[in-house]
Amino acid sequence: EVQLLESGGGLVQPGGSLRLSCAASGFTFSSYAMSWVRQAPGKGLEWVSAISGSGGSTYYADSVKGRFTISRDNSKNTLYLQMNSLRAEDTAVYYCAKDQGPGLGATTPPFDYWGQGTLVTVSS
Amino acid sequence: QSVLTQPPSASGTPGQRVTISCSGSSSNIGSNYVYWYQQLPGTAPKLLIYRNNQRPSGVPDRFSGSKSGTSASLAISGLRSEDEADYYCAAWDDSLSGSWVFGGGTKLTVL
């Protein structure tokens, strides 16, 4: 059974940093690309970032480019999101999601399994 | 403002058939597959339809997807109370460096 468990959320001041983790189990982690998707309170879904199965390729939404860094440790079956220079508009529940193949982009169906999410609140 | 456009709300009575539309452009729906997700209240989203019209195992055949040009639709037949949820469409967008884009979501109410 595929399981994704996010952690690391919390309250942080504007301009601060936070690192999210997503522990994966139930599948061969290195064989699948992974993504982060966020949802602001009462709002819709917004894709944040994706990383290939090997970790060699990454994509970012324009809204987080240069501030967030996605990475993975395939030996630990764990996905990360390092968030720097946080802003109030980054407040959201952050979900990690598994893609259906190792690559990125249009050819790999996305988000077939989701974690339960972790809440990040950016406020002074 | 979402890249993909969905109606904010839809409704139907038990047993009815409802459709939810998703409108995009040539850089997303017009040239790539469409995906649909269901988000029940207080839970994480769940994949409902992939590659325009394919259902993952376990998704009832009451749910179906279609695509034509730069628009797509999700149809739910034999509506049930447990279908009351938010529904989102998504597609890859080829513009600039590429990204996944979502619709703003449609809240389905079962009357």
TrEMBL record, chain B:
Residue span(s) of domain Ig-like: 1-91
Biased composition (Polar residues): 1-19
Pfam families: V-set (PF07686)
GO cellular component, one term: extracellular region
Location within or outside the cell: Cell membrane; Secreted
Superkingdom of source: Eukaryota
Disordered: region residues: 1-21
Cited PANTHER family: IMMUNOGLOBULIN LIGHT CHAIN (PTHR23267)
Protein name: IGL c2902_light_IGLV1-47_IGLJ3
UniProt source species: Homo sapiens (Human)
